[in-house]
Design goal:
35% of the residues lie in helices and 14% in strands. The protein is built from 13 helices and twelve strands. The strands form two sheets. Strands 1-2-3-5-4-8-9-10-11-12 form a ten-stranded mixed sheet, with helices on both faces. A two-stranded antiparallel ribbon has the order 6-7. The longest helix has 31 residues, at 34-64. Mean pLDDT is 87; it is low at 373-406.
């Protein structure tokens, strides 16, 4: 029975009702020695408590897309077949253009918010990762008028723990963005959500760690190649961006900073710079790994500043300072757009990030030059917090201040 399936949820609901009813019906009817009666009553109480806890957990899990299946929950899942030493660029010296075309079979994904989303099981030829990837195509993709049109792509990264479905289910990405894509207010992006939780009980930190995991290569090489081979996409880096929340936000920024030849822009919601921000991160295990996967350090020490744009949103103590730090060390042509989210907006959860999806994608549309044909143009439309992008750019918003390097 699927952990996130309707059947399991309904079963728990029924069991919870039964668990509450049992003491009312049987409490005074239990017979036998005093010790046996006490044991029977204790078991009834424990059954009621256990089913209640299980039901609450499943409801929270389904709401936040934390664990996809029993293997993820129990820590028995392992999606890494091998982790060879792939070198500094994560390709192992392989010419990606010479690799055979990756032809994938897709099926319709299931679950809340997954309408129109398709899924495939991808065996990464370079990374050695074997995991699922979800793809959603914008409404224009299938129209005859667009049959020769190439579309920009955004990779969507979940937090830890987190399911690749989270952007579609918990953050309602399609529900929020599809109407805006239809009306031209947001560019018709292809949305791609690869599995992030590749090893049991740990966050990979989107890092390449020889002998353990090549998560960076999985996200920045294998997944993009598969998408390019199966769909009409704008070539990298011009047409590619990456977005994430929490640990996924850290990864989004790090991937863009480390690979400006693969991504033009990145969105981080409540992310962090130092991998130690996630205590279960493999990238925080040594000082060398922490430095190699810290976008602040990478930007600060870059001999040639990368031609990328970063969108960093966060609350005090939860992403905002990390964004300001990046802004302070960024040099042209790198740009950093920092959005301050007040504490009153909520905590580190989906309710905080869900309203940020539309402003972030409007920013991507403008920054990547997909709306008016050039980057950096401003549209005077209100974001979810009531502020206009122009106000955000100038730092005059009462609820969200923006700091941006020219």
């Amino acid at each position: 029975m699927s952990l996130t399936g309707t059947a399991f949820l309904y079963t728990l609901i029924v069991l919870s009702v039964v668990a509450v009813a049992l003491p009312f019906v049987l409490w005074s009817r239990v017979k036998g020695p005093r010790g046996l009666r006490a044991l029977a009553r204790m078991l009834m109480v424990l059954f009621a408590q256990g089913t209640a806890v299980a039901l609450v957990f499943v409801l929270v899990n389904n709401q936040n897309n934390l664990y996809d299946n029993w293997a993820d929950l129990l820590g028995t899942g392992d999606h890494v077949q091998q982790a060879a030493n792939l070198g500094a660029d994560g390709t192992g010296g392989i010419s990606l253009k010479r690799l055979p075309k990756v032809e994938q079979h897709f099926t319709n994904a299931s679950g809340p918010g997954m309408k129109g989303v398709r899924v495939t099981q991808l065996k990464g030829r370079v990374s050695g990762v074997d995991a699922e990837v979800y793809v959603w195509l914008p409404p224009q993709y299938g129209r005859p008028a667009y049959r020769h049109h190439k579309f920009p792509v955004v990779e969507l990264l979940s937090g830890y723990p987190g399911s690749a479905k989270a952007w579609f289910g918990s953050l309602h990405a399609v529900r929020q963005l599809e109407p805006l894509m239809r009306t031209g207010k947001v560019a018709p992006f292809i949305l791609v959500a690869p599995r992030m939780n590749l090893l049991a009980g740990v966050d990979t930190g989107c890092a390449n760690i020889t002998g353990t995991v090549n998560a960076d290569t999985w996200l920045s090489v294998d997944v993009p190649k598969m998408v390019n081979d199966n769909f009409r996409t704008v070539p990298a880096p011009q047409g590619w961006a990456v977005a994430g929340y929490s640990a996924g936000g850290h990864c989004a920024t790090k991937l863009a900073v480390a690979h400006p030849d693969r991504y033009r822009a990145a969105v981080s919601m409540s992310g962090y710079n130092d991998p130690i921000g996630e205590r279960n991160s493999l990238a925080a295990e040594t000082q060398a790994l922490r430095h190699a996967n810290n976008p602040y350090v990478l930007l600060r020490d870059a001999r040639t500043p990368p031609a990328i744009a970063l969108y960093e949103s966060g609350q005090p103590g939860d992403g905002y300072e990390a964004g300001v730090g990046l802004e302070q060390v960024a040099k042209a042509p790198t740009t950093v757009h920092v959005v301050y989210i007040p504490k009153s907006a909520g905590g580190h959860n989906m309710a905080l990030w869900r309203p940020q999806v539309v402003p972030a994608f409007r920013w991507l549309t403008e920054e990547m030059g997909l709306l008016h044909g050039r980057a950096g143009t401003t549209r005077h439309e209100r974001s979810s917090d009531g502020s206009t992008p122009a106000a955000l750019a100038s730092g005059t918003s009462s609820r969200a201040a923006s700091v941006r390097r020219p």
